Amino acid sequence: MGLAEIRELIKPVIKEVDLSYLSGKIVALDAFNALYQFLAAIRQPDGTPLKDSKGRITSHLSGLFYRNKNLIENGIKLIYVFDGRHPEFKKKEQELREEQRKKMEEKYEIAKEAGEKNLKKYAEFTSKLDYNMIDEAKELLKAMGVPYIQAPSEGEAEAAYLVKKNIADFVGSQDYDSLLFGGTRVVRNITISGKRKIRGVEVNISPEIIELKDVLNYLNLNQEKLIILALVVGTDYNPDGIKGIGIKKAYEIVKKYDDPEKIFNYINWDKYYDISWKELEKFFLDPPVVDINKEDIKFGEIDEEKIRKILIDNHDFSEERVNKSIEELKKSYKQGSQKNLLSFFQNG
């Protein structure tokens, strides 16, 4: 989406941290965002995703199990938030993504026939989630003792709500539009941090912390103005933005006019969109969410046999590696409980 350009403006307030910084914190992860990252990153050298003996994709399950285990070992508590029904005005963005995916599939096949070696750079953009993959991901999370929430609409909106309500400490997402939904604290790169190969070069990716208050203070904008800035350059609901206006120009326009009507008249919004900008702004400020209380969230209730059934019996994962990881997961939860108990007595 266009708001990715905002990074150029807010670099000074983005904090790079070690994974240990998040120890003891609760992160509400945008589930689809994380699953697509696993599907993109966990692939064979020829670009094909991991598959079981029946040809079913397992990259997302591998990511969920082993990456979540790693995060839990680092003392991080996770809540996955799944998208519900997307608003009708997101249809164009979904069509664009599907079009881009098909184009990359074509490029991948052409590169494969030509004998190119680095096929992963094409293949990672061809990922697609289906309902069976989503359902099984939920089953695995539950078996691992990682709670998940089914949002009524956008997962990021629900995750932002959890942070605003102090149920979670951070929204975990790569997308900056978490800020538009009022996510007060956002962490990026949590599911991909560590050493990674990007275009054949090994780099170290660290988590990044972005606080909404820092963004608003640095840009000297309020929440409504930040949303307006995003609408000018493009969001998931108006992906094209306004032709010829980049993030710097958009920022100048938003700063120049106090009256939003003047901004949208100036950029000739009605020429590009049938939907009212006010409707989109309202959606960001007051999206559909399901009300959740802290006591509704349960961490660490592991179902070992269910994990084995999903990964080993159903999808041919290594029995030795899965069993070892289950023991490590149990140990991590136990250590986390002991730390919480110790903290209770020290603070009491």
UniProtKB/TrEMBL annotation:
InterPro entries: 5-3_exonuclease_C_sf, Flap_endonuc, Flap_endonuc_arc, HhH2, PIN-like_dom_sf, XPG-I_dom, XPG/Rad2, XPG_DNA_repair_N. Keywords: DNA damage, DNA repair, DNA replication, Endonuclease, Exonuclease, Hydrolase, Magnesium, Metal-binding, Nuclease. Residues 142-221 form the XPG-I domain. The keyword Zinc-finger does not apply. Mg(2+) 2 binds at residues 175, 177, 236. Its EC number is 3.1.-.-. SMART domains: HhH2, XPGI, XPGN. Interacts with PCNA. PCNA stimulates the nuclease activity without altering cleavage specificity. Belongs to the XPG/RAD2 endonuclease family. FEN1 subfamily. This is Flap endonuclease 1.
